[in-house]
Amino acid sequence: MDLGLKDKVALVTGAGSQIGFGKAICQTLAKEGCDVVVNDIDLENAQKTADEVKALGRKTMAVKADVTKKAEVDAMVNKVLAEFGRIDILCNVAGGIIHKDNVPIDEQDPAVWEKQLRLNLIGTMNVTQAVIPQMRKQKYGVIVNIGSGSTHQYQMGVGTYAMSKYAIDLFTKQLAFVEGKNDIRVNCVAPGPAPTNFGAILREDTPNLPPEEMEKMRAAMLGTFPLGRMGTATDMANATVLLASDATSYITGQVLHVSGGSVM
Ligand SMILES: NC(=O)c1ccc[n+]([C@@H]2O[C@H](COP(=O)([O-])OP(=O)(O)OC[C@H]3O[C@@H](n4cnc5c(N)ncnc54)[C@H](O)[C@@H]3O)[C@@H](O)[C@H]2O)c1
After folding, report:
1. Could you confirm whether domain 9-258 is CATH 3.30.559.10?
2. What is the pLDDT of residue 204?
3. Which of 11, 79, 166, 197 is the most exposed place for a label (fewest CB within 10 A)?
4. pTM score, whole prediction
């Protein structure tokens, strides 16, 4: 199957984490022949990812920008357009969880709600808003947002995080509806749990359990997953790149759960 990705220009946000989804997406896009702009709030790490893209023989650039800051995002997109002339693919990966799980609502800090929604939802909207005019001009564009399986897994107790991601599902559909006439497709990959830097805050207070206990807890969770294993960054990258490709040119406004069947 030809994915039709050769010589496309992609912008991937939040791709600095060296064990995260963003980096795996950049590598997979580069292997399929894309030039890839690597964004992160952490320039040093973004540059490491860009170096890997370069090693795969593609043009690349690392750009530091905080996706929650409109002025930084606009400057980033202008820089990409000055250097690459177009943006065919946008993968909105930057995000994360910034609150503890299972905290009763009356013990939560409203300032954290705002920060969480700003990071995941407003960050995704900021970058999308900056890129859409160029995609309209090109009469071509593909956007893949990263959502989360937590939107359907209430036992995780990550309320505000899950709400921010559910809002991304809806943003995906609304944008797909409006921009379809401009030949812009918008989809969302909703990952299940995967071992990246993402859950650090949730692990902070985890009691130091003996390895057998940890293994038991892990096995209990995975026992509820039809495919019986955690996801990997490669699993998420493959699904994201497939949705970014012309092989899925008739798919828009969809949320694809990549979670071993843990969400159906
Ligand atoms: N790992 C999981 O279990 C899981 C599950 C569901 C969804 N997700 C989502 O996947 C996405 C990628 O997370 P990951 O698992 O690769 O985690 P990660 O922590 O390894 O990577 C996230 C990256 O985003 C960057 N980032 C954070 N804030 C930013 C900002 N304001 N501007 C620009 N970059 C910023 C970080 O520096 C980091 O490099 C996130 O949106 C996350 O919510 C992760």
Report:
1. no
2. 66
3. 197
4. 0.96
